[in-house]
Amino acid sequence: MSDKKVFFTGGAGFIAAHTIPLLLERDYSVVIYDNMTRGDRDRVNEFVATGKVELVEKDVRYGGGVREAIRGCTHAIHFATVSINKSIADPHESIDINMTGNHNVFAAAADEGVQRLVFASSASVYGDPQKLPMHEDDQLNPLTPYCISKRAGEDLLGFYQRQKGLSWNALRFFNVYGPGQKIEAYYTSVINHFIQRLRAGQAPVIDGKGEQSMDFIHVTDLAKSVVAALESEQANLPINIGTGIDTSIATLAKILIDAVGVDVEPQFNPRDVLVSRRAADITRAREVLGWEPTISVQQGMTELVKASA
Ligand SMILES: NC(=O)c1ccc[n+]([C@@H]2O[C@H](COP(=O)([O-])OP(=O)(O)OC[C@H]3O[C@@H](n4cnc5c(N)ncnc54)[C@H](O)[C@@H]3O)[C@@H](O)[C@H]2O)c1
């Protein structure tokens, strides 16, 4: 058995469910550290049954628990977090979990000699972008406690790198979608909302002209970037993970109408909307991680519709 062992916070969540199989293929064993507030217990049990995954059911705010569980791990992935929606509704809890959790994990990883740590940051650290595509060196303007904690997390990694030689990569995920995602996901809930309406024979309703856009990245592609970031030669960088393509809400509606196979036209609800657009510059991901997205939005959405039928 290999001695590569990953300490994985939030390892019972959506993106982790797609990442853990890749880690097992590459001969890592995995310690899932998750308090199971949003975790998928059935999926975790399947992983545990392989004999290469264990679950430590604890909170990232409990520093002693983190330290104990990380001991002996060669790598770390830090995903445990509370979402944007919850961070707006309850800033206190969000700051507590995200900031304290970040610090507990980064400090323990640095002290316990973890070789590489991968942190889930977010495209939301940019705030409303000044230009597209969004580049890692662009100005950051995080707007919510969640986004502020992601940005602070990146800065804190820099501190432990300078202080204790911690090696890290912070992946700025764009709009992740795919099988197993919870329907209330902040940005991508629109996908589920449209699919549900289309299945009921109703037209998707779009505010304004539907010009607002997202950079939808399929979770299968995204999971590969996490493993690449764990193993890349170059490190200590924030790295955008998206497709580089901005898909407007109007285009998304058309893609989903085709995928569901109904004969309706989107309805436009004329009102002023703030048009926000997103697309990642993924040059750095290509160069540093040797990573490339392979699933087009059309293909990914069509498969998602089929899988959820
Ligand atoms: N899904 C996206 O579109 C997206 C976009 C940008 C960034 N991210 C980041 O990627 C990471 C993974 O996202 P996801 O979609 O898989 O989220 P998820 O909610 O499915 O998973 C998060 C996991 O963390 C666990 N958790 C929450 N609070 C905890 C605590 N206090 N202690 C221990 N565990 C705790 C939950 O039980 C859950 O299993 C997160 O850091 C998220 O911020 C996600």
Automatic annotation (TrEMBL):
Ranges of residues in domain NAD-dependent epimerase/dehydratase? 8-242
Q: Which family does it belong to?
A: Belongs to the NAD(P)-dependent epimerase/dehydratase family.
Which Pfam families does the entry link to? Epimerase
Task: Tell me what this protein is called.
Answer: NAD-dependent epimerase/dehydratase family protein
